[in-house]
Design brief:
By secondary structure, this protein is an alpha/beta fold. The chain has 2 domains: about 30-90; about 95-275, Vaccinia Virus protein VP39 (Rossmann fold, 3-Layer(aba) Sandwich), CATH 3.40.50. Helix content is about 45%, strand content about 20%. It is built from 9 helices and 7 strands. It has a 7-stranded mixed beta sheet, with helices on both faces. Helix 1 (about 25-35) crosses helix 3, helix 2 runs antiparallel to helix 3 and helix 4 crosses helix 5 (about 120-130).
């Protein structure tokens, strides 16, 4: 059983099951769940900038004063770029890398896709847009003992309800990483942002084994994730250190699937596609 979670009141509005959230809502939620990291980084800038500015004024040291001003400008510039980067990932431009991922996997037509996630249905909506004839079976796979290593995960889960607005999107819940879908019933499975939160050493391996089970012969596995690189570091800050590295995803997928392909989107998202053996 997962550890019980105490109800938290959020000031960001929750989604409504019968209405699809807008890209603006998803971008706003990404900013909201990142608020702790933004505040943590801000405190570092203030801890250096305020004393530096005070020294410059009190001791009439122009260099120290202007250094504090420059630090503030750098901080604001980084914040602006981070907000812009989050918009490109979670706002309207996000559909571009999902479309590219689907093309990388040569997926089209009346296919059945399992969207495997940790509590956000954004990926299911985007897949339904890019694949207008597809049926999307969206499965909440979060079933981790204890607290998440990232508090943002629970915020994400609290704010979005399983959708009922699209008849081509059907929501399910996994049971300890066992998927409630029949063997060889899907043409593709898709893993998206947040997959790195599923622990290795058992849980992640089981989930990908389940993905193999539900795939038809020759079925496709698709994955898009944040990378551990300078671009993502500027957008997310030091929290990006806990994501799975691109080379580790590549090795993990090649151990389980054939013909693994990789591409990098302009939104700093790593894209992978492979084929069931």
């Amino acid at each position: 059983m997962t550890k019980s979670h105490e109800a938290v009141t959020h000031w960001y509005p929750a989604s409504v099951a019968a209405k699809r959230p807008t890209p603006w809502w998803y971008w706003g939620r990404a900013v909201y769940v990142s608020r702790r990291d933004y505040w943590k980084i801000t405190k570092y800038f203030l801890a250096v900038g305020i004393p530096l500015g005070a020294i410059g004024v009190m001791f009439r040291l122009p260099l120290a004063f202007w250094a504090s001003v420059a630090l503030a400008e750098i901080g604001l510039l980084l914040l602006a770029y981070s907000l812009f980067g989050l918009y490109r990932m979670y706002g309207h431009p996000g559909a571009r890398y999902v479309r590219r991922l689907v093309e990388l996997g040569s997926l089209k037509g009346k296919v059945t896709v399992a969207d495997l996630h940790i509590g956000t249905y954004r990926h299911a909506f985007l897949l339904s847009d890019v694949l207008p004839e597809a049926t999307i079976q969206t499965v909440d796979c979060w079933n981790v003992e204890g607290e998440s290593p990232e508090e943002a995960v629970q915020d994400v889960r609290d704010l979005e309800a399983p959708p009922t607005s699209n008849p081509r999107i059907v929501a399910y819940k996994a049971d300890h990483f066992t998927l409630p879908l029949p063997d060889a019933s899907c043409d593709a499975v898709c893993f998206g942002f947040g997959t790195h939160e599923i622990p290795t050493g058992g849980a992640r391996e089981k989930l990908f084994s389940e993905a193999n089970r539900i795939l038809r012969p020759g079925g496709k596995v698709l994955l898009f994730e944040h990378g551990w690189d300078a671009h993502n570091y500027v957008i997310f800050g030091p929290v990006i250190h806990h994501v799975t590295k691109r080379q580790d995803w590549d090795k993990f997928l090649r151990e389980r699937f054939d013909d693994v392909k990789y591409a990098r989107s302009t939104q700093a998202v790593d894209l992978f596609a492979g084929t069931r053996r």
